[in-house]
Amino acid sequence: MKILDLGCGPKTKKPGSIGLDKRSAPHVDVVHDLNVYPYPFPDNEFDWIEMSHIIEHLDRPLQLMNEVHRIAKNGTTIRIITPHYSSQLSYGDLEHFHHFGYITFLTLQNTGLFKIKKHKLWFTDLYKVLGISMLANWFPRRWEKYLAFIFPAFYVEVFLEAIKTADKANLLVEQYMY
Q: Is the residue at 139 inside a domain?
């Protein structure tokens, strides 16, 4: 299994993966600015793509996802974890240019390029004990609409599956960039 840790950061990367980041570090295998496309990989290269706390840092998230789709094989799992827009972690970092919610990733599924395999909101232990975590994950649209800023989540995590068909190439950028 060929794994890419996209934006692996200065400290850790997923074991057994190729680490790509814009800054050099001992475990970074490929140094590349993630806002510059295309990435230095051929089409249909990876079986798993890890994107932990990176999508919120990039200029054009849809362009990023189009590039991820290009380098993913059909059926590749893409794991994205990012601060939820209601979290202080989302707005507390000056290098976070975008803020994401549970519903955000439904847009990707609607393109036909990706299928959501698993989707979850992460909360503090207190909210887990009180049942807020469970209710928010059962009714994410209602929670985001009415309760997200009363009971904020820490993170949103989504596992996507890349769907590769000839007629879907570059659809994401064409559909949403203009």
A: no
| DSSP-derived secondary structure letter, 145 | I
Write down the pLDDT at residue 178: 45
Spatial CB neighbours of 13, under 8 Å, sequence gap ≥ 6: 5, 19, 27, 28
| Position 20 pLDDT exceeds 80 | yes
Strands (E), the chain: 3-6, 18-21, 30-31, 46-52, 72-83, 114-122, 155-162
State the SS3 of 41-59: CCCCCEEEEEEECCHHHCC
The reply to whether 137 falls in a domain is: no
pTM for the model stands at 0.90
**For a pLDDT cut of 90, what percent of the chain falls above it?**
77
Question: How many structural domains are present in the chain?
Answer: 1
What is the enclosing helix (H) or strand (E) of 121?
strand 114-122
Identify the domain containing residue 28 by its residue range: 3-123+155-176
Q: What is the CATH number of the domain that holds 7?
A: 3.40.50.150
145 located within any domain: no
